[in-house]
Design brief:
The N and C termini lie far apart (about 60 Å). Strand 4 and strand 5 (about 65-70) form a beta hairpin. The radius of gyration is 23 Å and the shape is globular. It has 3 domains: about 5-240, 3-Layer(aba) Sandwich (Rossmann fold); about 245-335 and about 420-509, P-loop containing nucleotide triphosphate hydrolases (Rossmann fold, 3-Layer(aba) Sandwich); about 345-420, no CATH class. The protein is of the alpha/beta class. It contains 17 helices and 24 strands.
Length: about 500
């Protein structure tokens, strides 16, 4: 049978890096084909070529038996290719509906836009695939999890016959991820060819028909769920035994309270209460996990704690100091580090070099500055050290941060936050988009912060991550804390029910 997609001899070079090296990759109609590999292995580059975002230096692309030249995303879409990007391609100032139909508008009576019909079709798709979202909401007001739904709906709206999904479950709860898998399976049954980029091996084994592994720009194996295991896939990805994320039980948190949040209230731009009277404590030597489906107030709470948003009411103290109205710079001076869930918006400056991004909060302090003079050699040496320590893959410290793969951008943000002991580390989705080895490494960094006496607030939609790392877990639902649980006394299923609002209150830990 002629494959829906055949990429033959694809080669792509960037300065100092061969991202794809003579790659041959095929996908059949009705097949879900997982594309696996470490951060920087070349997965996203290969798919950007298929989607017309980048041009190969060598090789050819054949769709349904015909050689094509995909010079732009518009050309790719004209050939029936859709892509759900890891980094969202949405216009923040437009509504959900406007983003979905942009470039693919529904018209009637000639050139006139039929907005009502477009909204109805969008709502039908959202209901069919359990991707509920307000069609009239501005994208800039949506949390990252709901923006992911908009990206998926945008691809479905365009009736793509070849669909690329890049880390689609990275921001979703297990229940939401299961809905995405059901959507992918239903589309495949209808004949859609789906390329599924993921770092989650369980997800690949759960839904894919075949799996191809890239390592350092080359294909090192293609297999099926029936003939492989997680361990074998991990070995193919890294070429050696991978570290695990297993953790040791803590010796016990200190009575010292580092973060004290009392009756905090937050309203959004539409004056809707999104954080409603939240109170919590994080002790020295403790990891407190914050669980919740995206859109239930976690994002806004973290923004208040890190000085990015003002609280309407309540108080926040860090080690006894009132920081309710503190700025991000003042919080950094208090020993607070932040790993934001949106790394490109809040975690880095894409046009700056790696070296400059790694000192964004300390560039004016010794040893990186002497008076008003920056010490470029010291900053560069610091960057090289962190690049080695955190396996941040780039040609050199002067590389522009925006040119890094998503996983390496995340490593950069984590490296800056964890480079030294912190009084308080607020980590929001710290392993989103990271491969197995990098995830295990970040977990060890969080544990190290706890071991050194720091307090860690870990915000994650990954229940396995929370259960393996946290000492206690608080669950947010509709802006309120609905439960506080001892991590070792609860289960994935119990926390998942609380996140979905399906369980009553639990005994406080």
């Amino acid at each position: 049978m002629t494959p829906a997609v055949a990429m033959q001899g694809i080669t792509k070079r960037f300065p100092g890096v061969v991202a794809n090296d003579r790659v041959n990759f095929t996908v059949a109609a009705g097949e879900i084909h997982a594309l696996l590999g470490e951060n920087g292995a070349g997965k996203t580059t290969l798919m950007n070529i298929l989607y017309g975002l980048s041009q190969p230096d060598a090789g050819e692309i054949i769709l349904h038996g015909q050689r094509v030249s995909l010079t732009s995303p518009g050309t790719a879409m004209a050939h029936g290719i859709g892509m759900v990007h890891q980094h969202f391609m949405l216009v923040p100032t437009l509504t959900v509906t406007e983003n979905v139909i942009l470039g693919h508008e529904t018209t009637c009576w000639g050139p006139f836009l039929s907005y009502r019909r477009a909204v109805q079709r969008l709502c039908d798709l959202a209901q069919q695939y359990h991707l509920d979202v307000d069609p009239d909401a501005l994208v800039q007001e949506l949390p990252v999890g709901l923006r992911q739904r908009v990206e998926i709906l945008k691809a479905l709206y365009r009736r793509a016959t070849i669909l690329i999904v890049d880390e689609p479950t990275a921001v979703l709860t297990p229940q939401e991820a299961e809905h995405v898998f059901q959507t992918m399976t239903a589309l495949a049954r209808q004949g859609t060819a789906i390329i599924f980029i993921t770092h989650k091996l369980k997800d690949a084994l759960r839904v894919a028909h075949r799996m191809t592994v890239l390592r350092q720009g080359r294909i090192v194996g293609t297999t099926t769920p029936a003939t492989t295991t997680e361990a074998r896939l991990a070995m193919l990805m890294v070429g050696e035994e991978t570290p695990t994320s297993s953790t040791t039980m803590p010796t016990g948190a200190s009575p010292e309270v580092i973060l004290h949040v009392q009756d905090v209230q937050v309203v959004d731009a539409r004056a809707v209460m999104v954080v409603d009277g939240v109170s919590l404590l994080v002790h020295a030597g403790e990891i407190l996990g914050l669980a919740g489906v995206q859109g239930n107030g976690q994002t806004e709470l973290v923004e208040v704690l890190t000085g990015l948003r003002a609280a309407r009411a309540g108080s926040i103290t860090i080690a006894g100091v009132d920081t309710t109205r503190a700025t991000p710079r003042q919080l950094a001076a208090q020993g607070v580090a932040h790993i934001p869930e949106e790394r490109q918006k809040y975690g880095m400056v894409e046009s700056y070099s790696i070296a400059d991004n790694l000192v964004l909060t300390t560039y004016d302090q010794p040893p990186f500055a002497h008076g008003l003079r920056r010490r470029a050699a010291v900053i560069a040496a610091h960057a090289r050290h962190l690049m080695r320590t955190f396996d941040l893959r780039a040609p050199n410290p002067t590389t522009r941060a925006g040119s890094l793969s998503g996983g390496n951008q995340q490593k950069l943000v984590v490296a800056r936050a964890c480079a030294q002991p912190r009084r308080l580390l607020i980590a929001a989705q710290p392993t989103r988009g990271l491969d197995i080895a990098a995830t295990a490494f970040v977990h060890q960094q969080l544990i190290q912060q706890r071991t050194q006496g720091g307090a860690v607030l870990l915000v994650s939609t990954d229940l396995d991550e929370l259960l393996s790392l946290a000492d206690r877990i608080v669950v947010m639902y509709r802006g309120k804390i609905v439960a506080t649980l001892a991590a070792h006394e609860t289960s994935r299923e119990a926390v998942g029910r609380l996140m979905a609002g399906l369980a009553g209150s639990e005994r406080a830990a």
